[in-house]
Amino acid sequence: MNFHINNLVAEQQNVLELFNVQKPKPSISIIGLGYVGAVSTACLANLGHEVIGADLDALKVDQIANGISPIHEENLQNLLQEGVGDELIKATTDVTAAVRDTDITFVSVGTPTKSDGGCDASYIISAAQMIGKGLKQKNAYHLVVMRCSIPPGTTLNVMVPEIEKASGLKMGEDFGICFNPEFLREGTAIADFEAPPKTVIGANDERAAIALTEVYQPVDENVIITTIEAAEMVKYVDNIWHATKVCFANEVGRICKPLDIDSHEVMNIFIQDTKLNLSPYYLKPGFAYGGSCLPKEVRAVAHLGEELGVDLPLVNSLAKTNEEQIQSAVDLVKNTGKRKIGFLGLAFKAGTDDLRESPILEVIASLLKDGYDVKTHDPAIGKDTAIKGQFNYVRNVCPHLEQLIDELPDMMTDDCGELVDDCDVVVVTQKNANFQMQVGARLHNKKVIDLVRLFDELPKTQSYEGIGW
Ligand SMILES: NC(=O)c1ccc[n+]([C@@H]2O[C@H](COP(=O)([O-])OP(=O)(O)OC[C@H]3O[C@@H](n4cnc5c(N)ncnc54)[C@H](O)[C@@H]3O)[C@@H](O)[C@H]2O)c1
After folding, report:
1. Is the Cβ atom of 287 under 6 angstroms away from ligand 1?
2. How many of the other CB atoms lie within 10 Å of CB of 239?
């Protein structure tokens, strides 16, 4: 939908410019005038929209209505003053009226943590009820844009039912819904609005997606359009990633200090690698890490921390999460209830015959222990590959794999197609064109466990699955 909608909106814009016509900008109500709401009010007015800010807090409403910033944020006060001066910004405690009197409603109420650690949706529910009442009082189509950070599913399963109940209207027909995560950083919020890191629109119908794409066109001509649930998840994923980076860098600092190494020197070098370190590489859900370096080095750094008396919970947790991934693969196979299992790919990645600490060996060993019938195929590994020598290198960490290493040559076949035909379940551990072809041709009559996302487009068949999809 991405390309199609961005293009559609750009084409419409070009036609309007050709005839020198200005399309009227939709008016926008903003429910919740905290950091997100106050900044959105000022910035959307700055783009030429009439904005009504609505909050239950009379003090915030009064401040916004008078062009006074309720928070400390660079440039916010100036923009609010301009907006109020141009009569583009109004504010009210009457949320229902604000919705009724506008075309689009942005929702930016708080979503604090509940006592059990979950997300408190009570402000969202009360805002949704007020939106529903406002929609009941108008006749035209209305777009509701959810901006809060919320667990996936909240927009469609919590918010929409409340709006529909209070309004008697139907989503997709009488009103549209989008989830549009907010990525502003406090302190540079205005600059981030004007040059966003990305604009994500989760939508389930084209009309809603187009309406919101048009709003953002002046600051982002290439918005990313996706499902509502994926957009909700992106916001959480972004923030756990940022938190991971902070903790990672801090653990590097903690281990560098007793070694008398300048952690900033180390990280300044680290960040210059945009091919492997700061890149999409290693950031796609798939199978466990393995090979001759990653497991060894993770253990070595954890050990170094222990020797130095430095606590490194993030580094120490890596082996555990990796083991969970291996166990998930074992469980997926066992849950099929089938006994003849074929593995496509033995090495930890394609294009190498290095079997050292290949995580799929752990899966195979676990299945053999329970009496499964296993066959394997790897285009880079044959009966004459020196796997015994490789095993000697990892003997200390994988003594439990010795028997498998002895038995492995008897499980190998050179014929990929034959292996797929002969087994009940095929487990794909590497991505290559031949595996794609052989598995793709048999998808409808074979149980496939894909650990690497073999196909760009997810097959829709019931008999296909991976750990993370
Ligand atoms: N602060 C940030 O930097 C930031 C960045 C990205 C996303 N977010 C997310 O955006 C959402 C809003 O965050 P915030 O920091 O602006 O919140 P905030 O707590 O600063 O403000 C929320 C406002 O909503 C108002 N409110 C609550 N219920 C209402 C109702 N029914 N009607 C009208 N007003 C109501 C409150 O009075 C308050 O002024 C949260 O989900 C947050 O996680 C925040």
Report:
1. no
2. 13
- Answer yes or no: 43 catalytic: no
CB of 365 shorter than 6 A to ligand 1: no
**Whether residue 3 has pLDDT greater than 70:** no
CA distance 44 to 307: 55
pLDDT of residue 390: 85
Average pLDDT over residues 6-18: 84
Ligand 1 atom at minimal distance to the Cα of residue 71: 20
| Cα 55 to middle of ligand 1, angstroms | 10
Distance CA 27, CA 51 (A): 6
Report pTM.
0.93
| β-pairing verdict for 28-31 and 51-54 | parallel
**Is 34 a pocket residue for ligand 1 (Cβ < 6 Å)?**
yes
Q: What integer pLDDT is reported at residue 8 of this predicted model?
A: 86
Task: Please say if the pLDDT value at position 2 is more than 80.
Answer: no
Burial of residue 159 (number of CB atoms within 10 Å: 0-12, 13-18, 19+): buried
| DSSP code at position 92 | E
| Beta carbon of 108 within 6 Å of any ligand 1 atom | yes
pLDDT digits (tens, 9 = 90+) for 238-274: 999 999 999 999 999 999 999 999 999 999 999 999 9
β-strands 200-203, 175-179: how paired?
antiparallel
From the list 293, 398, 416, 423, the catalytic residue is 293
